[in-house]
Automatic annotation (TrEMBL):
Keyword Transferase: yes
Name the record gives this protein: Class I SAM-dependent methyltransferase
GO terms under biological process: methylation
UniProtKB keywords: Methyltransferase, Transferase
Length: 226
C-alpha cells in the first residue's frame, strides 16, 4: 500500500474541514444527488439489522439513506478524516436523535473498526493514494458481505463526454491546493485513474457484481457480494 504523505494528509484535512459547509450543501442539493444516493443504497441492499460502515462519510449526507434501510435494529457507522466534516455529521445525527448512527474520525486506509456486514463509500476513492490496496484492506479488516462505491470521473459516453472540459474545471477547483504539482498531472487524470482502480478492485474481489454509469456517464456505481 502506498504510504500517505503526512504533510499532504494534514493539508487535505484542513482543506476539506474549511470547505465542509459548501460540500455539505452540494452533497444534499446538487442536481440528481438524492437519486444517486438512493441508487447507491439500493445497489448495496443492506438488510434490517445490518451494521453498515460509510467510509469517508463527509458531512453525513448518505447516513439517513442507510439508517432507513438497516432499521432500528441495525447500526450505521460513519468515518471521515476531516474534523470539520465530522462535526457537521455529528450535528446532523444529534438533531435527528438517531441512536443507532455513530460518526467518528478515522483514516479510510486504517479504519478503527473490525467488523461490518456492508461497506459503502461515496465520492471518496479519488482521494486515496492507493485505492486498490485500501479496498482490499476493507475486505480483510471488516470482512463485509457487500460493498458499494459511488464516484465521479470523466464521462466516456454521450451525453456527458462533451462536458468533460467543464468537469475538469470543477475537479481542479475542488481539489486541495498543490494537487497538480504533487502528482505531476492534472487532478482529473489522478481522479480517473484512482476511481477506475478502486472499482476494478471491487469487481475482482466479489462473486456477484454490478457496474453502471449514471448522470451522463460521470457517476460510476459499482457493487459486489462475496
Amino acid at each position: 500500500m502506498t504510504t500517505p504523505d503526512p504533510d499532504r494528509a494534514a493539508a487535505a484535512r484542513d482543506f476539506y474541514s474549511r470547505w465542509a459547509p459548501g460540500y455539505d450543501y452540494l452533497a444534499r442539493h446538487a442536481p440528481g444527488i438524492r437519486r444517486l444516493r438512493t441508487d447507491l443504497v439500493d445497489t448495496l441492499d443492506p438488510a434490517p439489522g445490518d451494521t453498515v460502515v460509510d467510509v469517508g462519510c463527509g458531512t453525513g449526507a448518505t447516513l439517513p439513506y442507510l439508517r432507513e434501510r438497516v432499521g432500528p435494529g441495525g447500526t450505521v457507522v460513519g468515518v471521515d478524516f476531516a474534523p470539520g466534516a465530522v462535526s457537521r455529521a455529528h450535528g446532523r445525527v444529534d438533531r435527528a436523535g438517531w441512536k443507532n448512527v455513530i460518526v467518528c474520525r478515522g483514516d479510510a486506509t486504517r479504519l478503527p473498526l473490525t467488523d461490518a456486514d456492508a461497506v459503502v463509500a461515496t465520492f471518496l476513492m479519488g482521494m486515496l493514494p492507493d485505492p486498490t490496496a485500501t479496498v482490499r484492506e476493507w475486505f480483510d479488516g471488516l470482512d463485509p458481505d457487500r460493498i458499494a462505491l459511488l464516484d465521479l470521473a470523466r464521462s466516456h459516453r454521450l451525453p456527458g463526454r462533451p462536458l468533460n472540459p467543464l468537469f475538469r474545471l470543477a475537479v481542479r477547483a475542488s481539489a486541495p491546493p498543490g494537487t497538480s504539482d504533487h502528482h505531476g498531472e492534472s487532478p482529473t487524470h489522478v481522479l480517473d485513474r484512482r476511481v477506475a482502480a478502486a472499482h476494478r478492485a471491487v469487481l475482482d474481489a466479489c462473486t456477484t457484481t454490478t457496474h453502471e454509469t449514471r448522470a451522463g456517464g460521470f457517476a460510476y456505481l459499482s457493487a459486489g457480494r462475496r
